[in-house]
């Protein structure tokens, strides 16, 4: 191919898991299946500029975040390139400039790895197309998700929306460990426009990274039960998503969130990523739910921040509660209003 240079841009969202991925095998293969809501507002926008180079001995790239050169991001991307070179053989023949920005505040404690790695994977897919490789639509997204997985596991669930399953499980037809697939069954309209208000309890760097956490699931005393539970929870989620039963939904996702953190607390070495304010918020949510009967629930990522989930038609009362009662527990009063979204877009 004679294409010498070019430029592509993608925006890709973050996602929030309902059934959590925690524990992986080699090559970023998950130990258990997971399912997530794709988000809408928390996104990474990445522009990839590429130009042909003379030698092809090594990867050549520079990374910029908000216009500032970021050499500390390079090792992670170097590893990513090493893992995906087999599937994108042009990588060493081009020089890349990766310019990236997030719509959510930098170091908000929100992991940008899912949105960032999926945006970069999609840019690389577009480069491959510009170099003359044709992909059918469906294959383009599957391969993008496959590549994103090799950057950061959960990133494979950010390419499309609005509910994505990753990991092979009997409960979900067509599910695979290799990439995320759209949830294939009927979903009740209660889940349409579902809201996620993210309370930023702690914006600092986590004390224990996800990759260290995943590795601590090796030899974990409860690992096998936990992996089986994730399969069972996907099976249980099916009738909930179909019927729109929000009580059962709440019970399932809150249990998943606390189980994720229970795995951290029962690892060896053990660790705790929740902060006192995480628990304050959870208790307030439980109290408010008891009092009002509204469908407010929470989930957690591998961090202290709380994702508050609720249906759109209960937004006004719940948002008022969040502003009046929960925002005091956020660092500098920061929170982000998001909702379920439909995946990445080329710009
Ligand atoms: O994609 P990773 O390796 O950063 O792992 C993320 C794991 C959780 O966010 C805790 C759960 C999940 O399924 O997203």
Q: What report would you give on this structure?
A:
This protein is of the alpha+beta class. It has two domains: about 5-185, Ribosomal Protein S5, domain 2, CATH 3.30.230; about 190-340, GHMP kinase, C-terminal domain (Alpha-Beta Plaits), CATH 3.30.70. About 35% of the residues lie in helices and about 25% in strands. It contains eight helices and 14 strands. The chain has helices spanning about 75-85, 115-130, 135-150, 210-215, 225-245, 245-265, 275-290, 315-325, and strands at about 5-20, 25, 30, 35-50, 60-65, 70, 95-100, 165, 180, 195-200, 295-300, 305-310, 335-340, 345. The strands form three sheets. Strands 1, 4, 5, 6, 7, 8, 9 and 14 form an eight-stranded mixed β-sheet that branches. The chain has a four-stranded antiparallel β-sheet with strand order 11-12-10-13. Helix 5 (about 225-245) packs antiparallel against helix 6. The longest helix has 21 residues, at about 225-245. The protein is globular and about 70 Å long. The two termini are about 25 Å apart. The mean pLDDT is about 95. Bound molecules: (3R)-3-hydroxy-3-methyl-5-(phosphonooxy)pentanoic acid (PMV). GO terms for molecular function: ATP binding; carboxy-lyase activity. It comes from Mariniflexile litorale.
């Amino acid at each position: 191919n004679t294409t010498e240079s070019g430029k592509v841009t993608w925006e890709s969202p973050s996602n929030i898991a309902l059934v959590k991925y925690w524990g992986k095998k080699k090559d970023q293969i998950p130990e258990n299946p997971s399912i997530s809501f794709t988000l809408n507002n928390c996104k990474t926008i990445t522009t990839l500029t590429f130009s042909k180079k003379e030698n092809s001995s090594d990867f050549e790239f520079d990374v910029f975040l908000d216009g500032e050169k970021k050499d500390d991001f390079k090792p992670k991307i170097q590893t990513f390139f090493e893992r995906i070179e087999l599937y994108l053989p042009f990588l060493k023949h081009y020089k890349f400039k990766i310019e990236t920005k997030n719509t959510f505040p930098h170091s908000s404690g929100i992991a940008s790895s899912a949105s960032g790695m999926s945006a970069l994977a999609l840019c690389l897919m577009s480069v491959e197309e510009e170099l003359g490789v044709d992909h059918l639509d469906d294959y383009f997204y599957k391969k993008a998700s496959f590549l994103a997985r090799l950057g950061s596991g959960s990133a494979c669930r950010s390419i499309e929306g609005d509910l994505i399953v990753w990991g092979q499980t009997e409960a979900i037809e067509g599910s695979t460990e290799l990439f995320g697939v759209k949830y294939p069954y009927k979903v009740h309209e209660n889940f349409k426009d579902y809201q996620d208000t993210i309370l930023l309890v702690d914006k600092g760097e986590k004390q224990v990274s996800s990759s260290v956490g995943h590795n601590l699931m090796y030899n974990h005393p409860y690992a096998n039960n936990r992996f089986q539970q994730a399969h069972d929870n996907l099976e249980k989620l099916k009738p909930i998503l179909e019927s729109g039963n929000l009580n059962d939904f709440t019970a399932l996702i809150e249990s998943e969130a606390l189980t994720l953190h229970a795995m951290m607390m029962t690892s060896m070495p053990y660790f705790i990523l929740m902060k006192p304010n995480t628990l304050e918020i959870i208790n307030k949510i439980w109290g408010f739910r008891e009092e009002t009967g509204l469908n407010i629930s929470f989930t957690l990522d591998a961090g202290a921040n709380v994702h508050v989930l609720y249906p759109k038609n209960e937004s006004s009362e719940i948002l008022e509660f969040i502003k009046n009662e929960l925002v005091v527990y956020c660092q500098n009063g920061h929170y982000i209003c998001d909702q379920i979204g439909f995946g990445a877009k080329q710009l």
